[in-house]
């Protein structure tokens, strides 16, 4: 569980916005949470795809403070066949370190070009709600997997977002991922920022920008550029 949890949350999570104007509301306002979730229900009906650039800051507080910064682009596609998601990491700590994560058909593939290897996790369907978090998921879908609390509103780069605190209902997942704070644009059904908190003391700040909704995706968005020499490893 721990290995897979870390892997998945690197995908989303894998994966600095201008300062926002914060308006705080009652942290336990169920009416406000319900209002935001119902907007997400409506946005999900019209959601087909998203492209966004990202910066993921992974911060380790114990035992030795450390920070890893990854940059790249994510792609999401939702249709009658299900959800596809990919994260194309271009650099890590300002150095080239390409990696491509693809989720499709209930499995995850990680392609590492520098070692020419694809690692396949075939049993990942149960984690699909993690991948769609903040990108086209309806309010009802979120309510099934998360305990949700409304924290207020914040304007990020000129966009008014609603802040939700989300705690996994699955106790097995909660052992690793204790909670998520997410800044949602409920009108479009997408998130601009996420902070994921882990029981280990680590947390990840995920910021998305240059977001495009319901536009054509690159033909290779979900394709791994492997060769006959690429090594495949099943987990």
Structural commentary:
- There is one protein chain.
- By secondary structure, the chain is an alpha+beta fold.
- The chain has a single domain (2-216), classed as outer membrane lipoprotein receptor (LolB), chain A (Clam).
- 17% of the residues lie in helices and 49% in strands.
- It contains five helices and 13 strands.
- The protein has a 13-stranded mixed beta sheet.
- α2 packs across α4 (139-145).
- The longest helix is centred in the first third of the chain and has 16 residues, at 30-45.
Q: Strand percentage, roughly?
A: over 45%
Write down the overall geometry: globular
Name given to the CATH homologous superfamily: Lipoprotein localisation LolA/LolB/LppX
Query: Helices and strands, in N-to-C order?
Result: HEHEEEEEEHHEEHEEEE
At the first level of CATH, what is the class?
A: Mainly Beta
Strand order of the largest sheet: 1-8-9-10-11-12-2-3-4-5-6-7-13
Measured distance between first and last alpha carbons: 12 Å
CATH fold-level label: outer membrane lipoprotein receptor (LolB), chain A
Biggest beta sheet summary: 13 strands, mixed
Overall mean pLDDT: 84
Number of domains: 1
Structural class based on helices, strands and sheet pairing: alpha+beta
State Rg: 17 Å
Summarize the structure.
The protein has 235 residues and is α+β, with helices and mostly antiparallel strands. It has helices at 2-11, 30-45, 128-131, 139-145, 171-174; strands spanning 21-24, 49-60, 66-79, 82-92, 95-104, 107-112, 117-121, 146-156, 159-168, 177-185, 190-198, 203-213, 231-234. It is globular, with a radius of gyration of 17 Å.
